[in-house]
Amino acid sequence: MIAGIDIGSRSAEIVLLEKQKIVHQDRLPTTFEPLSQVRRLLGNVQPLKIVGTGYGRNLLTEADIAFPVETITEIKAYAIGAAFVYPRACTVLDIGGQDTKAIALMPGGKVAKFEMNDRCAAGTGKFLEHLAAVFQIPVPEFGSYALEGDRELSINSMCTVFAETEAVSLMAGGQNPRNIALGLHASVVKRTVNMLRRVGLKFPLVFAGGVARNPCIIHLLEKALGAPLLIPEEPDMLGALGAASFGESSAAERDK
């Protein structure tokens, strides 16, 4: 049994694979003590190996963990995870807590080209989380709230601080808050679509990461792209799944 662990900015996920079958998966908030959370995720499990990914993956190699540890990049993990769930996938979009990844795939989940926004929160889950707080709407409800708007109000800045200023100014001007929220979601989608096209967007497209749970982003993306998205049942587990699958495949190669 191989454990794939994805330590992200907002949450940490574990997927246990045995003979390419998912036998267990779980998720916890990353908190300020990610290794403590990883130990909670592992519990009494004793995997043959751990494959780590995510921004905190190197913490695993430095920790006192009783199992062999290997790491792979988030790009590789998400590509392999997407191919595991959707073998015909051609493109992967992951919008996580603090970065956005657009990945063009070759057959078998190999990466052909990618682009990653990891230098600021623009267009990420953190961007939407911060603005949901401005509207005093719980994050899980922000997408549904925005879908109640009937007109996308233009938001020109993707900087979190400046976008907040624009939103507050529009509210003060008497604009419908739902239309402002819809405009904020549309600005995220516009930026995302440009990233996808730069890597050579082809369908089917897999949408993963925590923001893949946002119904407004899903709706606006499908409208902009003119095609349905493939969304895993657990979209934020794809990185951990890809890490575990990589671990199983590399172990099988060594055993030949």
Number of domains: 2
Instruction: Could you tell me the CATH topology label of the largest domain.
Output: Nucleotidyltransferase, domain 5
Low-confidence stretches: none
- The strand line-up of the biggest sheet is 3-2-1-4-5
SSE arrangement:
Layout: E1 2-7, E2 11-18, E3 21-29, H1 34-42, E4 49-53, H2 57-62, E5 69-71, H3 74-85, E6 91-95, E7 100-106, E8 110-117, H4 125-135, H5 139-147, H6 160-172, H7 177-198, E9 205-208, H8 215-225, H9 238-255
Parallel strand pairs: 1-4, 4-5, 6-9
Antiparallel strand pairs: 1-2, 2-3, 6-7, 7-8
Q: Any overview of this molecule?
A:
- With about 260 residues, this protein is of the alpha/beta class.
- The protein has two domains: about 1-85 and about 235-255, ATPase, nucleotide binding domain (Nucleotidyltransferase, domain 5), CATH 3.30.420.40; about 90-230, Nucleotidyltransferase, domain 5 (2-Layer Sandwich).
- It is built from nine helices and nine strands.
- It has helices at about 35-40, 55-60, 75-85, 125-135, 140-145, 160-170, 175-200, 215-225, 240-255; strands spanning about 1-5, 10-20, 20-30, 50-55, 70, 90-95, 100-105, 110-115, 205-210.
- The strands form two sheets. It has a five-stranded mixed beta sheet with strand order 3-2-1-4-5. The chain has a four-stranded mixed beta sheet with strand order 8-7-6-9, sandwiched between helices.
- Helix 4 packs antiparallel against helix 7 and helix 6 (about 160-170) runs antiparallel to helix 7.
- It is globular and about 65 Å long.
Task: Summarize this structure as a short list of keywords or feature phrases.
256 residues, alpha/beta, Nucleotidyltransferase, domain 5, 4-stranded mixed β-sheet, 43% helix
